[in-house]
Design goal:
The two termini are 42 Å apart. The protein is mainly alpha-helical. About 1% of the residues have low confidence. Helix 5 crosses helix 6. It contains 14 helices and four strands. The strands form two sheets. The protein has a two-stranded antiparallel sheet. The protein has a two-stranded antiparallel ribbon with strand order 3-4. Strand 3 and strand 4 form a beta hairpin. The radius of gyration is 23 Å and the shape is globular.
C-alpha cells in the first residue's frame, strides 16, 4: 500500500525519499524491521490473551525430561507470525506481483488449515485435531493451485543465460530495474519452461521434460502434469517436515529462520539480471519482489523466537508449523530451487525420515518377531537425543548449527558444478 502510495504521490510531488520505495533492498529492510517490531509488540498481548482464555498445550506424558513443566503453555502462537508477516507485506510489497499473490494465498491457505487443527484440539478438546486425510487434502489442493498458476500464468517465465542461448533463439538486452546503471545483459526472450536448478552438475539446470516418457504431440502437457505432481509432493513433505520439527522450544523457528534467509538470498540473486548473469544462474523476471515477502517472514520468525526460545512462553502450534513449511516449499518452487530442498531443509528431511524409519521398522519387526523393535529411542529425531539425556537448549542449538552448515553448502552449490 505504501509502495503504491509513494508511486502515486511522486507523480505530483518529488518529496525527499520517495525514490527509495522503488528499491527492493529498502522495502525489504523496512519489511523486516516492521514485522519484527510488530511481532515483539503484539506477541506479549496475544500470549496474555491466550493465557486468559486458557488456550494451553495439552501435554501427553512421554517420559521426557522437563516435558510436563510445559503443560498449559499457550499454543496457537503461529497467529503472531502470520499477522506480523502479512502487515509489512501488504505495506511494502507490490501486491499485484504474481509471485506475491501466490505467497499470500499460500500463507492464508495453510494458515487456515493449521488454525482449524489447533481450534479443534484446544476449543473442542479433541486431541486428534484435523484428520491426517484433511490436512493432506489441504496441502495437495495448495500444490495443485501453485502448479497450475506456474503453468498458466503468462507472468511466470524464465530467461536463459546468454551462454546457453542457441543461434536460432531470439535474444534481447535487458537491465534490471533496481540497478539501472547502464550494465545491459543479453538473455533469451522470456519463455514458459519447467526448468529448475539442480546442484553439482555443469549446467546447473534440470528440465522436468526429461522425466516425460511420452514424446508425441502434446508432450508438453504431460510434462506440466509431472511438474504439478512434484510440486504437490514437495509442499506436502516440507509442510509435514516443519510440523514434525516443531517439538522443542525454538527448534522449528530457528531452523526456519536460517532456511528462509538462504531462500531470500537466492530470490534476490535470481531476480536481478546482473547478478544472475554474473553467477551464471537462471534469471527469473519479477521474482525479486519475493525478497520483500521473505524479509517480512524472517522478521516475524525472529520476533516470535523472542517468546518461543527456551523456556518458551508460547508454542506456534500447527497454525505456525504447517504454514512455515508450506511457505518454504512454495517459495523454493517459485524461484526454481526446489531440488535444493533436501540439502537446505536437511533438518526437516531427517526428522521426517526418522519417523518413517521408526514406524516402518516397528511394524516390520512386529510382523516378523511378534514384538515391535525401534531404531531410535524415540522419534522424531530430536526426542531421541532428549531420551539420551541431552539438555533441550543444547539439542536446539546444535540443530541450528547444522541448519547453518546446510545453508552454506546450499549456497555454495551455485558455483560447485
Amino acid at each position: 500500500m505504501i509502495y503504491y502510495l509513494a508511486q502515486y504521490i511522486s507523480k505530483f510531488w518529488d518529496f525527499p525519499g520517495s525514490g527509495l520505495f522503488r528499491y527492493i533492498s529498502f522495502r525489504s529492510a523496512m519489511a523486516f524491521i516492521v514485522s519484527m517490531a510488530f511481532a515483539l509488540l503484539i506477541g506479549k498481548r496475544i500470549i496474555r490473551y491466550l493465557q486468559r482464555k486458557q488456550i494451553g498445550e495439552e501435554i501427553r506424558n512421554l517420559g521426557l525430561e522437563g516435558q510436563m513443566q510445559k503443560k498449559g503453555t499457550p499454543t496457537m502462537g503461529g497467529i503472531i507470525i502470520l499477522l506480523s508477516m502479512l502487515l509489512p507485506v501488504l505495506l511494502f510489497a507490490d501486491i499485484l506481483n504474481i509471485y506475491i499473490i501466490v505467497m499470500l494465498v499460500t500463507t492464508v491457505w495453510l494458515g487456515a488449515v493449521g488454525f482449524a487443527d489447533d481450534y479443534i484440539k484446544v476449543f473442542l478438546k479433541n486431541k486428534e485435531g484435523l484428520s491426517g486425510r484433511t490436512k493432506i487434502i489441504g496441502q495437495v489442493s495448495l500444490g495443485l493451485f501453485v502448479g497450475l498458476v506456474m503453468w498458466l500464468s503468462p507472468e511466470i517465465v524464465v530467461r536463459e543465460k546468454v551462454e546457453r542461448v542457441k543461434k536460432d533463439v531470439q535474444i534481447e538486452t535487458v537491465v534490471t530495474s533496481e540497478y539501472n546503471d547502464n550494465q545491459p545483459v543479453t538473455v533469451s526472450k522470456a519463455k514458459k519452461t519447467t526448468q529448475t536448478t539442480i546442484p553439482f552438475v555443469k549446467n546447473n539446470e534440470f528440465d522436468y521434460n526429461l522425466l516425460n516418457p511420452f514424446k508425441g504431440e502434446g508432450y508438453e502437457y504431460v510434462t506440466w502434469i509431472i511438474f504439478i505432481l512434484v510440486v504437490i509432493l514437495i509442499i506436502t513433505a516440507v509442510s509435514n517436515g516443519a510440523n514434525l520439527t516443531d517439538g522443542l522450544d525454538g527448534l522449528a523457528t530457528g531452523v526456519s529462520a536460517v532456511i528462509t534467509t538462504t531462500l531470500g538470498v537466492f530470490a534476490y540473486l535470481s531476480g536481478n539480471v546482473i547478478y544472475a548473469e554474473y553467477l551464471n544462474i537462471m534469471y527469473i523476471p519479477y521474482s525479486g519482489e519475493l525478497v520483500v515477502f521473505m524479509s517480512a517472514f524472517i522478521g516475524a520468525l525472529v520476533g516470535f523466537l523472542w517468546y518461543n526460545s527456551y523456556p518458551a512462553q508460547v508454542f506456534m502450534g500447527d497454525t505456525g508449523s504447517l504454514t512455515i513449511g508450506g511457505i518454504i516449499a512454495v517459495f523454493a518452487i517459485l524461484i526454481r530451487k526446489e531440488l535444493l530442498i533436501p540439502i537446505l531443509c536437511g533438518i526437516f528431511l531427517v526428522e521426517n525420515l526418522s519417523v518413517v524409519m521408526q514406524v516402518s521398522y516397528f511394524k516390520y519387526t512386529k510382523r516378523k518377531y511378534g514384538e515391535g523393535r525401534r531404531i531410535f529411542l524415540m522419534s522424531p529425531l530430536h526426542h531421541h537425543y532428549q531420551k539420551k539425556g541431552y539438555p533441550e537448549p543444547k539439542i536446539v542449538t546444535r540443530f541450528w548449527i547444522v541448519a547453518i552448515l546446510l545453508a552454506v553448502i546450499t549456497v555454495v552449490t551455485l558455483k560447485i558444478r
